[in-house]
Amino acid sequence: MAKVTAMDVYKLLPQTNCEDCGEASCMAFATKLSEKEADLTLCTELSDKKFKKLDDLLAPAVKEIIIGKDEKAKIIGGDEVLYRYEESYYNQTVLAVDVPDDLDDSDFEKRIKQIEDLEFERTGESLKLDAIALRNKSGDPEKFANCAKKLKSSKYPVFLVTFDPIAMEKALAFIGDDRPLIYAATKDNIFDMADLATKYQCPITVFSPGDIEKMKDLVFTLRSNGVEDIVLDPGTLTGDAIGDTLDNFVMSRRLAVEDKDEDFRYPLLGVPALVRLNNEEDDDIKKGTMEATIASTLMNKYADVLILKGNEIWELIPILTLRQSLYTDPRKPQAVDPGIYEFGDVDENSAVLLTTNFSLTYYTVEGDLKSGDANCYLLVLDTVGKAVDVAIAGGQFDGESVADLVKETGIEDMVKTRKLIIPGLAAPLSGEIEDETGWNVMVGPRDSSAVPDFIDEKF
Amino acid sequence: TEFKPPIKEYPGKIAQVQLGAGSRKPVYLGGQTSLYRFEEPQPNPPIVTFDVFDIPMPGLPRPIREHFSDVMESPGEWAKKAVKDYGANMVTMHLIGTGPKVMDKSPREGAQAVEEVLQAVDVPLVVGGSGDPVKDPLVLEAAAAAADGERCLLASANMDLDYHKVAKSAVDYGHAVLSWAITDVNMQKSLNKYLMKDGLKQEDIVMDPTTCALGYGIEFSIDVITRTRLGGLKGDPDLQMPMSSGTTNAWGSREAWMKKEEWGPTDYRGPLWEIFTGLTLMLNGVDIFMMLHPESVRILREIGETFTK
Ligand code: B12
Ligand code: SF4
Question: What class of enzyme is it (chain A) (predicted)?
Fold first, then answer.
């Protein structure tokens, strides 16, 4: 199905150009709407009927759903395309970690804290987990509800994981107004769970392992009962059946994006944690490796939510990194502002370094300078967000552009020295940079982790 | 509405490339007529080829060295270990030692290392140079002659070197060619066109759209690979070849090799970095993976087979 154009949107707007929305014209507003850069409510001139029509027209192929409330809220879904190069993926995959309800108090607290504290810094972003999946492992509704009560104060939103409507109701009685995700409605409990979702106004997951035809039926039932916020779990079958799981995820998303099948236009949820839960005998490393492997498979093919069991950092770093990569916007360069940056205490004798404004490059260098307690100036060249050797090969990084940067930053008034440390990969440019800037060039190490030592020893 | 599986029609077909002939057990790459197995059965599982070097490679990360330290002096033994102990479908012989700045071995010496590996194992070979644009075509020519009729994959032909010579060596001695462009679909198309002008057919070419590792531009690789495979299936004859990934690039990422307490042991992190890099590209269309770590190879092979069964 073709994408909504600004013209499609414009046709439904009042066309009075009253400027209340903050745009100069209805056409300008239509353009912003079609690019998802404005909110429809900003137009003050719409009748309810027109608003509904436009809202439907602008609705993404995959419905956006909110889990949690206020500062805890996480949005999932919102995707429009099957392939990220066509536009971008939106609302990165929410990562929840399994917490069984049979832990004793101190273990329970410890686990929640581990989940909330886990953090990995990459290219200036702090990558974190998103949610807590409380599982009714004990089978005891009271225990489940008591744990849920404790999560009232958690930093992250909660998934309530039980097929037992009684346990679900008891837990919802405590935290139902925080918009936890109900997991899950199955063919056996669907009406009871649907009632709970309606009563507490919570999003609800439909679980139909290995059978997306049945899943469609269940979704239709929920929709017919007035339930709107639905998440789809087609089952995460591990081992040899992972191929079936992949098929089910891909088919579900295709039906949503290409066929606009109303029963599939919802976020998808996978449970790599099952690898750990189902393979008691394997060792922890094997299980962690496999769990991460399944997570990367499903994240690549459309999972909007994943429930994991492992919370070891070596397992989570690749998962968090893959998520960061998949959700970058292909339409925007990943760059930092060019110019001059200072590290530590600088004075007129401080070392002067050069790098490019590609985010990954800049933040890698920044991290190394900080962790090595270096005192220096860093000149950041505008390479339209290209790494060192990419920019050299592409012609954005040369003697002339470096000379311009030296002038623009005014570094010549800040330091007495005229020595510039360049990346090892830029060695072939050293002559040309010396000619253009009149500075002495020192070729630094290839990897910036060695820079702080290099400054101490050589500068 | 009723449930109907979303199966699409694709006007194009990916060529099937045979690697290995003569004294080798052949493997087959490509041949797809659809993106997924729920649309059409997938003809061939993904293939993993183990990296082997003609010199002991001091720079390899420790988690890999520890598996091969006993055989690194001998490419033949190294290849044998990769096949016998670790189940490699293929072996990639990198002739790094021919690099003018490495050991400057002659093309003839390079060819001898290839002969040694051909003797040691009966799986098909990828043969790579040192990355020197002047010398690689000469090294590949000598290796191609030494492996006459064994149908190796010559790595690689690219715009920076005399690819005519690489193509001619393949045509003369019955090999296939790896056509390498740097994350650029148009450059890939041009190079493939030139190679076909030089006498190669679709069935003689494997494309390398460049593997940017996890966290180091993997999204660029994803986008290019997706577009390339869709282009081929939609009917573009210049993109209807199977694809290869230099998955080993993953080991260049500091998250894979750098010792850092807060990141957990590299023994587990490193292999995962390689698995994530390969698997992501597999899910977007890559057919053959050049890899280093035994555990990564095992997992990628296993999961790849379940996606195509
Ligand atoms: C991702 C990638 C791309 C992406 C761009 C990503 C980006 N935004 O930069 C895309 C696909 C767009 C791309 C395009 C091209 N690429 Co490219 N690309 C790569 C790749 C795979 C990774 C680059 C990367 O992200 N590195 C990570 C960053 C962090 O590294 P870095 O910036 O160098 O920083 C490190 C060091 O330099 C050092 N450092 C940084 N700053 C400083 C400062 C000081 C003082 C010191 C001491 C050290 C230091 O520490 C950092 C951490 O280690 C490399 C191959 C590879 N594996 O390296 C090829 C590569 C760089 N590309 C290459 C080429 C040829 C190109 C193209 C010209 C291809 C073409 N013909 O179109 C284009 C050019 C595009 C342009 N500029 O207009 C070649 C360059 C060959 C060469 N050395 O001449 C490479 C090496 C691939 C190859 N083997 O051929 N590329
Ligand atoms: S507020 Fe509505 S009617 Fe007024 S200019 Fe904006 S889009 Fe047009």
Answer: transferase
